[in-house]
Each structure stands twice: as C-alpha cells, then as structure tokens.
Amino acid sequence: MTGPSITIKDVAALAGVSPATASRVLSGNPATSAESRQKVAAAVAELDFHPNAQARALRSTRTNVIGLLLSDVRNPFFADLAHAAEQAALAEGLVTLLGNANESIPQQDRYLDTFISQRVDGVIAAPQGEGSSSLRALLEREIPTVFVDRTVDGIDVPSVTTDSDSGIRQAVEHLARQGHERVGYIAGPQTTSTGRDRLKSFARAAREFGLSTDPALTYFGDFQSASGSAGAHHLLGLAQPPTALLAADSPMAVGALATLNRKGLRIGRDMALIAFDDIEWFSLLDPPLTVISHDVEAMGRTAVRLLLEVIDGQKPASVVLPSELIVRASSGTADPSLGQP
Fold first, then answer.
1. Contact 252/231 with Cβ under 8 angstroms?
2. The predicted structure's pLDDT at residue 332
3. CA-CA distance, 21 to 55, in Å (whole number)?
4. What stretches of 239-340 show up as alpha helix (H) in DSSP?
5. How far apart are CA 315 and CA 334, in angstroms?
6. Is the model's pTM score more than 0.70?
7. % of the chain residues with pLDDT over 70
8. d(CA 129, CA 318)
9. Residue 246: beta bridge partners?
C-alpha cells in the first residue's frame, strides 16, 4: 500500500500514535514529542506517504496569535514589558492577546483558559504562585510556553529572568558605605520566584556588609503600592526604626515614598530610599530616586525570540539578564535624628 491511497490514519496506526498527533507532526507543529516525530517520520518513509498538500492545509490552522500574561498592568515595569513584547511579536507577524493576572491566581487561570480556547500559537507568562491547574493544563496540551520575569519550581520551560543578586548586593554595599546599619526591606510575596530570590539576595548582602539582620526589619508586601505604604508605616513605627528602605519593586517603592512624604521625612536626608526597577519618572523626582535597574526592553524582546524558537520545535536555553545599581540623591547618609522631622 503506497502512494495516494495512503491516509494519515494509516501513518498514525503504523507509528502507534493518534491521528491528531500524526497531523501535528506532519504540519510542523512543535507541540509534539521527539519520540512521536521519529515514529511518524519512520511510518511516512515506510509507507511512502506524501503529506505535502495535507501539511499545507494543516499549517493554515495557525492563528498567528500569542498570549501574553503579565502580573499587574498597573506596574510600570510590566507595562513596559508588554510594549516591548508586543512590538517584537508584531515585527514577526504575530498579534498579542494581553492578560492581566493582577497578582491573582484565579484571574491568571481565567486568562490561561481563554488562551487555550482561543488556540494561541504560544504563551509568554509571568506566572503567579507555584503552578496552578490551568498553567499545568497549558503545558499538558504542549502549547509552546515561555516564562518571563518569574519562574515556577518544577516546571521546565525556557525563561528570561533577571539576576537580582548583583543589583541588590550593590545597593546594600552602597547603603553600608553611606553609614546605614539598619535597612528596612519591603519584600515581595514569597509565593513568587522574584519575591523569594530578592529576599535571599538582600539577606546575604546584609550579612556580608555588616548590616543588622533583625527580622523585624523585613516587611512582606505583595508587589503592589498599598503594601509598600503599609510596609514603610510599619517599619518606621519600630522601636529602632531603619534609616534606609529598600523596596523589592517599583509600586511598593511608590507606596513607601507616599508614606515618607506624609510623615514629613526628607528623602535622602532623614530616610534613604532605593527601589528595585527603574521607571522613567523616578529620575525626575526631587530628589531623584536611586534604583536597581534591569533592561525591560531586552526582556520583552528575548521572551518573544525564545517563544518563536519553541514554536519552531527548538529547545532554547533560558536567559538571565543583569541588574545594576543607579545611584541618585535618594540614598543619602544615615541620619540619627530619624523619626524627629
């Protein structure tokens, strides 16, 4: 049995896979295992099957749409990331569906379920939590996926993240050289990889440069501005308050800044303040804000590149981008009169 009489069902039967799997292999869909591709290729060769016409038809089912799931679109970092990824995708002929998780697993899952139902060609996600059912359903369906900014332990997909350690170490060293010994740290949620990694980096650097390791100096926020405000209020109310604050992302830094202003504390004089993430207008503040910066444009472009490689059937290595301290006037010397503006 050879030539035109051979059907895709015959190929699937000989390969020991389902007709749907055989169709995906023959269409060039990367959402197939290497073993399936090998079996189908062997069956095609043995049966002398010529799938060109069928493959062209199957390839036409590509939507040229990708899903982009971000943690919180109100966060300027993620807004910039969305713009960078969208522009990179458009340049490759892809349209982007944007989902806002709002730092919520249920909201994340609603968008992921929608991406699946809309048959997107792939997904770029800043995942919430430690791996939800919808996230795992996405991977079980072998939909090409790349993580951005955050990762999930135990889920092996390509990712593009930031080496937070280098920038945080520079920030702590800078504060220590300015004479600060008690630095308050407003941490992100420990259910996220970025929240955990940045806290570990801060704790290591605090020990290395001789800062106080008093656990009361750490306040656990949620990467949103209200928790930054609450964190600054709590830390300033300690019997021995810090002389400097480091916020683990820009919205929490904005919240902390609002609290310091309400209390009449002079940034860079009564209280030093450093933010993780740079925002364009941080340099325009009076005084301008010291930040730990990383390249959000490169992160967005790299995430799209990795996703395209996965869609093409490749297995790209994950990418880690550097971070660095940009010193401005907000991170001044320690002032022992803190709390008495």
1. yes
2. 79
3. 13
4. 250-262, 296-311
5. 49
6. yes
7. 90
8. 20
9. 185, 274
